[in-house]
Amino acid sequence: MDLNKIPQIKHTDKNNFFLFAGPCAIEGEDMAMRIAEKMAGITDKLGIPYVFKGSFKKANRSRIDSFTGIGDEKALKILAKVSKEFGLPTITDIHKESDADLAAQYVDILQIPAFLVRQTDLLVAAAETGKTINLKKGQFMSPESMKHAVQKILDSNNEQVIITDRGSMYGYQDMVVDFRGVPTMKQYAPIVLDVTHSLQQPNQSSGVTGGRPELIGTIAKAGIAAGVDGIFMETHFDPANAKSDGANMLHLDLAEKLLTQLTDLRKTVNSFEDIKL
């Protein structure tokens, strides 16, 4: 995967981690623009290659009355406007084969949700758009098994593939990150750590997913130390009232402090010599 092939990506010469960040879902134009403007300023200041993240729809909801989106094309057009206004690449997730061609008209990276990463037809449809593909590791999958998901993209004549680890299920209502998987998956593709979804507490009796956002910094710093290539995080200026996954988002006001710490840590990690046994 060549990061420089992602349209409008900046700061690739800084030897920093790259970042996928934004709200869980596109709730409206004003909120998307507000978050994008803030994050663009921070990442330019710190020299972080940045991709704005936002789901144009949420298909994997616990309850039928959960927020799913504001309309597919309406949300995708907002993502396109973010890209144009701030000169940023964008990423969104897709859930069925017909989403691939639709979303590819508006965004630069197509993301395959963790629950769907074994769906061959979906992966092939995404790969055939020619867009960069971000594969979320299934919560139920081993790091080693992700090589098969990556190979489906490669066999579809697309070498632009990334893996994002979002933790593994531990019991019914908790997620854990096994950092032993980082060097394993780096053999197959660049590896990103999702530091917000890996702190989810799914399957709550209320039907609303919980989370442990106070541990975002801990997981993110551990990921950089372990050698991940990128960080994925969801952020919002009002997580308590976000329409999706607010319980595990980082407050937008804390983003600069965290990303500054991660950038400093990355510089230290870059100075280390690899230990090979």
From TrEMBL:
This protein's UniProt keywords: Cytoplasm, Transferase
Reaction(s) this enzyme catalyzes, per UniProt: D-arabinose 5-phosphate + phosphoenolpyruvate + H2O = 3-deoxy-alpha-D-manno-2-octulosonate-8-phosphate + phosphate
A GO cellular component entry from the record: cytoplasm
Primary localisation category: cytoplasm
Domain DAHP synthetase I/KDSA, chain residue ranges per copy: 8-269
InterPro entries cross-referenced by the UniProt entry: Aldolase_TIM, DAHP1/KDSA, KDO8P_synthase
Pfam families in the cross-refs: DAHP_synth_1
Protein family: Belongs to the KdsA family.
Name the record gives this protein: 3-deoxy-8-phosphooctulonate synthase
Origin species: Galbibacter marinus
